[in-house]
Amino acid sequence: MPRKTPVKSSRKSLTQAKKTPKSSFLKRIFRILFKWGVIFSLVASIPFAGWVWWLNGQVVSRFEGQKWQVPSEVYSAPIILISGAPWKKQDLENLLEETGYRFGRNSQKVGWAARSRTKVSAHLRSYVDHLGFHESERRIFSFQDGRLVIQALNGDEIDEARIEPQRIGFLYGGNTESRQILTYDEIPKPLIAILIAVEDQEFYHHWGISLTGIARAVVVNFTHGSRRQGGSTLTQQLVKNMYLSSERTYTRKLTEVVMSLLLEYHYSKEAIITAYMNEVYLAQLGSSALHGFAAASQHFFGRPVNELNLDEFALLVGMVKGPSLYNPERSPNRAKARRNTVLAVLKDQGRLSDSDYKRLIEQPIRLASKQKERSVYGDYLDLVAMQLSRDFDEATLATKNLRIYTGVDIRAQRAASIAMRRQVAALEQRDPKLKGLQGAMVVTDRLSGQVRAVVGSSGQHYTGFNRALGAVRPIGSLVKPPLYLSALATGRYTWWTEIEDKRLRFNVGGQIWEPENYDRKTHGVVHLYEAMAKSYNLATVSLAQQIGFDRVGDTLRQLGVKRSFTMHPAMALGALELSPFEVSRLYQPIASQGRSSELGVVLAVMDQNDQLLKRFDRKNDVPFTDALLAVTLDGMTKTPKIGTARAAQAAFPNLNFAAKTGTTNEQKDSWYVGITGDYSSIVWLGDDDNVPLSITGSSGAQKVWIDFTKNVNPRSLPDGLPNGAARFNVLDNKFEMAADRCEDKVSLAFILGTEPKESSSCFWPF
C-alpha cells in the first residue's frame, strides 16, 4: 500500500510555492533599480567628468604657459667705480646704501658693506646683463687725496669695480601689478621653511588638500551657520589666487579642491611652492598690486630677498594672513606683533632657539627709505618707451617680463633731478616773478653718447610732460660753437683770427634787422676765441656773413639737427628752435671729439630666461675730422676762463671743462652747455607761457649745472688732442708762436697747418 506524503511537508512546499512569485518580483525590482541606478550614475558622471577634464585643461594651460602678465623691467647701467676717479668716502657710502647694501661689522656676505675711518669694503653682487654674467666680488675702497683706490682682499690694486644695474621702473605696468619672478633655486630655503611652518605644515605630505583641515572647517562653519574657516593648504591658496575669484561659496570651494588635486597630480612640490612664492599677494601700492616675496622684499627693504634676515622673512610671511592688516608701512606695531607671532611658531616647533627668539623679537622693523622710490626716472622712461616702440608692440612690453638695459646713470639722474628742483626753487624765492619757472636737462656720456640722465620738469615728481623732449625753444647763443666750427672747417680761420665786433644791418624780407650785443656796446677788433667766449653777437653775425649763412646751416645739419629750418641771418644768433634733447645731440660730436654722434638710450633687451632679443647699436658717422671737433671743444674751454661762464670756473677752479651760455630775445630762455671729462650736459630754463624772465644763461641755467656737477665728482677734459691738432702758445697781438718768457700770450688749439709759421722770443732789442 503506497505511503502517504506527510502533511507537514506538503504544507511547506505549498508555502514555498506561494512565496516564490513575491520573491521574484522583489528581485526584478532590485535589478531594475540597480540597472537604472548604474545608468543614471554613468549619465550623471559624464558632466562631472567633463567638468573635471575642463578644469584639468585650465590648470595645465595656465601653469605651463605664461603664468603672469608682468610688465617689462627697465634697468640702469652698472655703476662703474674707477681707480683714480675723484670720490669722497661719504659719497660712496651713500651710493652703497641707496643701492641696497647694508653696513655691518664686515663685508663677508654678498650685499653687505663695512666701513672704518678711512676705508670702505663691500661684497658686490653678481648680475647678468646683455654682456654676460658678472661674478660677485669683494673689494676694498680707500681714498687718497680725494681719489678712489680700489683693491682686492690680497691688496692688489684693481682698475675698476661694478655695482649691479638697478631697476628703475616698469614699462606700461604702473596700473597693474608689481612682481619679480624667482626660480626655485633663487628662493631662500629659510623663507620656504618659515612659510610652510606657519601656513601648511603638512605641505610635503598631502595631495593638495588637507582632510583634517577641511573637516575642522566644516565643523566650525556648521556650528556658526556660515563660512568662517576655509582649511586651505598652500596649494589651495595658490589655486584660489591664480585661477579663481574671491567669492565664498561651496561651489567655488569644490572647484578649488578639485583643481588642487589636479595641480598636485601634474606638478612637483618644488614647482608649486615656486609659483606660490611668485603669486602671493602682499600689498596694494596705489593702483598697483604687489605680488610675490621678491617684489615685496625690494619694496619694503630695498634689497633682494636672498639678503634678508630671519626676522624680515618672518615679517613677510606674517603678511600673508592679512596684507592690508599687517602692512608695516601703515601699521608698524601690528606688523611687528604678527612677525613675533610667526617667530613664536618657529620657536614652538623647535626651529628657533629661545635665545634667538628673544633677540629677534626685539629687532625693530627697518624699512627702505621711500625717497629711493620717488619717480626720478619717469622722464627717462619716456625715452625708453619712445625707442622701443619701433621694435616692440606695447602689449609685449606690458606683459612679457622683458628686461631692458639702458645707459641711465642713477647718480647722475638723481643729481640732475635734485639740482633742477633746488635751483629753480632758489630762483623763485629770489624773484617772485619767476614763480612757475620750468626746466629740463639732458646729460650724456661725453665719449659714448649714452644718455645718462633726463629731467623734464622742475617739479618734485614726474608730471607727464617731458620738456626735455617737448619744449622746442630758440637756442640762443648755443648756436655759436657750431657756427665757429663752420668757420674753422674752412681752413681760413683759427681761434686767433681777428674779426671786428661792429654794428650791422640786414634786409630780411623787406624788414631791416639790426642785431645787438647783450651789453648794447661794440668791442672793436677781437679774436674769434674772445668773441665766442664772451658771446659777442655782432662779431658772430659778421663771421657768419663772411663764411656764408648757408654754410652755417649745412654745419648744423651735419652735426645732427634733423628738424627742418630755413637759414637766415637771425639763425646765426640762435633763432633756431630745438628741444633740449635735440641740442644735446647737436653737441655730442663736439663733446666726444668725433667718437659719437647719435644719442643712445636702450642698450639691449633680454627675455626672462636671459636670452638676448635685441642689441641696439648706433651709427656714429661724423662728417668732420676729430681734429676739427677737438679744436672746437678746446675753444669752448675759454668761456669759463674769460667769458660768460666764469661763475662755473670759480666753483671748480681746478677743473678744465668746456661751456657755453645762451639767452634768447627778451630773456625768455636760459640755456647752458657744460662738458667735463665724463658728461656733456644741456640745461634749459623757461616759462611754459614763453614770457620774459629776469635770468640769463649765466644767472639761471648755469646755476643748475654747477649744482649738478658738484654732486657727480667731475673729471677734467683730457689734455691731449687727437692727430691733426695741437696746442700752441701764441702772441695775443701778433700771429706768432710765443716763447715761454712771453707775457702777452694765449694757449690755443690749432688744426695742424693753420698754426703760426713764425715765432717770437720776446727779447727787447737793444
TrEMBL record:
Domain Bifunctional transglycosylase second, residue spans: 81-161
Domain Penicillin-binding protein transpeptidase as annotated: residue spans: 439-675
Primary location class: membrane
SUPFAM superfamilies the UniProt entry points to: beta-lactamase/transpeptidase-like (SSF56601), Lysozyme-like (SSF53955)
Domain of life: Bacteria
Pathways per UniProt: Cell wall biogenesis; peptidoglycan biosynthesis
Protein keywords: Antibiotic resistance, Carboxypeptidase, Cell membrane, Cell shape, Cell wall biogenesis/degradation, Glycosyltransferase, Hydrolase, Membrane, Multifunctional enzyme, Peptidoglycan synthesis, Protease, Transferase, Transmembrane, Transmembrane helix
Catalytic activity: Preferential cleavage: (Ac)2-L-Lys-D-Ala-|-D-Ala. Also transpeptidation of peptidyl-alanyl moieties that are N-acyl substituents of D-alanine; [GlcNAc-(1->4)-Mur2Ac(oyl-L-Ala-gamma-D-Glu-L-Lys-D-Ala-D-Ala)](n)-di-trans,octa-cis-undecaprenyl diphosphate + beta-D-GlcNAc-(1->4)-Mur2Ac(oyl-L-Ala-gamma-D-Glu-L-Lys-D-Ala-D-Ala)-di-trans,octa-cis-undecaprenyl diphosphate = [GlcNAc-(1->4)-Mur2Ac(oyl-L-Ala-gamma-D-Glu-L-Lys-D-Ala-D-Ala)](n+1)-di-trans,octa-cis-undecaprenyl diphosphate + di-trans,octa-cis-undecaprenyl diphosphate + H(+)
Family to which the UniProt record says this protein belongs: In the C-terminal section; belongs to the transpeptidase family.
Chain's role: Cell wall formation. Synthesis of cross-linked peptidoglycan from the lipid intermediates. The enzyme has a penicillin-insensitive transglycosylase N-terminal domain (formation of linear glycan strands) and a penicillin-sensitive transpeptidase C-terminal domain (cross-linking of the peptide subunits).
PANTHER family: BINDING PROTEIN TRANSPEPTIDASE, PUTATIVE-RELATED (PTHR32282), PENICILLIN-BINDING PROTEIN 1B (PTHR32282:SF11)
Protein name: Penicillin-binding protein 1B
Record organism: Marinomonas primoryensis
